[in-house]
């Protein structure tokens, strides 16, 4: 047994491995646990049960308001009465259309009235209603205004749109932990109640993060014979659901571009939407807020921290989503510059729940009972 002369300090008890460890029971989880899209949908009551793994709905629109001239120039002459358009099905006899001038021009456009149609070739009355005849250049846009009929005219030719069938699917998400019974019975640091309880809580958060990422980037698919011979399905994400009204900043986000995107975003639907944005986009908007009075202070709505952006077209609730991030060694590839403008009223999250079988997110303990000394 060693003899020690003089003062004793913690060096001796550390060397003797006798110093009591003080370990905080609550561990720290570096990965952020925010799942704003899932949180909003759940808190706003946008979560519903369904009784089929296939989710179907129809989308429709009004008849077209724009078409274009074909490849040939039509002269500025009232005798030039045929116009070949890109899609003749958008026109019927009696339709009026305008030939807009340049966006910077204040000149009144020529109006034409359709008197006959054969495929994509329209026979028209030029300079209709006393307007001035103009050159109809190739590919120039034609604005379809409506119809004009004389008294006692026959019934108009029907012109309707066909609803488009859309389909998504329920997706099976799974995570598991596998612990020996000895491990479960052992007291550990950083796991109050045991490591099994800690891992359950951790995997629940990870599951929500995974679902949130799938709701951002997933694509609806169905394979009836998957690797194990059974059906394999994936759900629709925002990125694949949104195919139009997409703006690109070309690598540089400006306030002017954001305002242009607002014009697109608020053209349809609610005048209050969510701007689900990457941290980089949030930083840019916050920087502009220092000089522009278009952003309000932060507040919590449905448990998510948001700021309100006032534009000339509507209001965005600015919500940061950490899942919109860049990856890779250089950090240059990814989604760090992305943002989604969402009308939450038009989004729904479904969980399979039929015949008494609730397939919502849940914990299943001891899923495998094979007699092994583990769970």
What would you call the structural class?
Answer: alpha+beta
**Number of contiguous helices:** 7
Distance between the termini: 45 Å
Number of strands: 20
The average pLDDT score comes to 87
Helix content: 10-25%
Strand order of the largest sheet: 3-8-5-6-7-4
The fraction of residues assigned to DSSP E strands is 15-25%
Low-confidence stretches at least 5 residues in length (pLDDT < 50)? none
Order of helices and strands: HHEEEEEEEEEHHEEHHEHEEEEEEEE
Biggest sheet features: 6 strands, antiparallel
Shape designation: elongated
Radius of gyration over alpha carbons? Answer: 31 Å
Blueprint of the fold:
Layout lengths: L9 H6 L20 H8 L3 E4 L3 E6 L6 E3 L13 E3 L10 E5 L10 E9 L2 E5 L15 E7 L16 E6 L11 H5 L9 H23 L3 E3 L8 E3 L3 H4 L13 H11 L6 E6 L1 H11 L9 E3 L2 E7 L4 E6 L5 E2 L5 E2 L4 E4 L6 E6 L2 E2 L17
Parallel strand pairs: 1-19, 12-15
Antiparallel strand pairs: 2-9, 3-8, 4-7, 5-6, 5-8, 6-7, 10-11, 12-18, 13-14, 14-15, 16-17, 19-20
């Amino acid at each position: 047994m060693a003899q020690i002369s003089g003062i004793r300090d913690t060096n001796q008890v550390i060397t003797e491995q006798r110093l009591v460890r003080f370990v905080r029971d609550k561990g720290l989880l570096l990965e952020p646990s925010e799942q704003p899209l899932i949180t909003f949908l759940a808190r706003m009551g946008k979560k519903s049960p369904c009784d089929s793994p296939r989710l179907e709905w129809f989308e429709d629109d009004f008849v077209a308001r724009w078409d274009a001239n074909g490849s040939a120039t039509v002269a500025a002459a009232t005798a030039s009465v045929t116009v070949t358009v890109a899609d003749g099905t958008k026109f019927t006899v009696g339709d009026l259309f305008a030939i807009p001038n340049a966006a910077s021009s204040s000149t009144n456009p020529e109006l034409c009235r359709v008197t006959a149609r054969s495929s994509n070739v329209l026979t028209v009355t030029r300079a209709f209603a006393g307007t001035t005849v103009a050159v109809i250049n190739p590919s120039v846009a034609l604005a379809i205004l409506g119809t004009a009929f004389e008294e006692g005219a026959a019934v108009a030719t029907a012109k309707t749109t066909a609803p488009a069938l859309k389909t998504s699917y329920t997706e099976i998400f799974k995570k598991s932990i596998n612990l020996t019974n000895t491990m479960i019975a052992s007291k550990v640091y950083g796991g109050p109640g045991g490591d099994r309880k800690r891992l359950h809580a951790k995997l629940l958060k990870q599951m929500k993060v995974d679902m949130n990422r799938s709701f951002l980037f997933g694509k609806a698919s169905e394979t009836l014979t998957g690797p194990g011979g059974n059906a394999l399905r994936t759900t629709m994400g925002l990125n694949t659901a949104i195919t139009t009204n997409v703006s690109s900043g070309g690598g540089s986000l400006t306030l002017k571009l954001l305002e242009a995107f607002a014009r697109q975003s608020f053209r349809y639907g609610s005048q209050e939407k969510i701007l689900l944005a990457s941290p980089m986009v949030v930083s840019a908007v916050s920087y502009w807020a220092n000089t522009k009075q278009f952003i309000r202070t932060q507040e919590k709505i449905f448990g998510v921290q948001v700021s309100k952006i006032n534009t000339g077209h509507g209001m965005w609730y600015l919500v940061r989503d950490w899942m919109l991030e860049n990856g890779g060694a250089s950090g240059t590839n990814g989604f760090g510059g992305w943002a989604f403008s969402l009308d939450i009223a038009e989004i729904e999250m479904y969980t399979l729940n039929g015949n008494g079988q609730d397939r919502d997110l849940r914990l299943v303990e001891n899923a495998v009972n094979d007699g092994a000394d583990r769970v």
